[in-house]
Amino acid sequence: MSETAVDLDRRRFLTGTAVVIGGIGAATAAVPFIASFQPSARAKAIGAPVEVDISTIEVGQRVTYKWRGKPVWVLRRTPEQLDALKGGNGPVLGDPDSVKSEQPAFAVNAWRSLKPEYLVLVGVCTHLGCSPSFRPLPDADTGADWKGGFFCPCHGSKFDLAGRVFAGVPAPTNLVVPPYKFLSDTRILIGESDGGKS
To answer: Is residue 127 among the annotated active site residues?
Structure first.
């Protein structure tokens, strides 16, 4: 074997090795660059739909999630709470049929939800944007007509267990029902309904 042949084989080997190592280095350097095109968790929270697991929510419990920078409540109502909604709060409610309120078409019913057991609401008062507290039982602050619901401590607005506003309080409309859909019996996608994104 001549000296020139040995040098060519060695040169081919070194060139091939350099190409492989350079390719690995380029791919490694490209991963963070490509990953930067994905929206951040913060950006997803601002506008993207949020998938939530409702399998761990106990009957009577309210859980809070974030969507578009706002609290979104998921309340798993008790049978007694559902019966209270059927009881006809009509005279004390400002918008009992949810005609003037912001919600998807599927929420224009007595429960304001897809499934009566689960209530999904944006947890912001429609008066000046305070966050009402969850008061599932009657108490002294809320009055004799109170069967449970949401009470805004800022200016005294009251909402029933479907988020419907009481008459004669500062809040002008019912609490907002965001678009959402059930992905399964245990998962909800907030921010998108069967009619599309909102």
So the answer is: no
Distance between CA atoms of residues 175 and 132, nearest Å: 10
List the catalytic residue out of 12, 100, 115, 155: 155
Q: For residue 94, give the DSSP letter.
A: S
pLDDT per position as a tens digit, 69-99: 899 999 999 998 888 887 655 558 888 888 8
Q: Residues 6 or more apart from 178 whose CB is under 8 A from it?
A: 67, 72, 120, 121, 122, 190, 191, 198
Whether pTM exceeds 0.85: no
| SS3 assignment, position 142 | coil
Per-residue pLDDT at 1: 52
**Where are any strands of DSSP class E within 18-141?**
50-53, 62-67, 70-76, 118-122, 133-135
Residue-level pLDDT at 72: 92
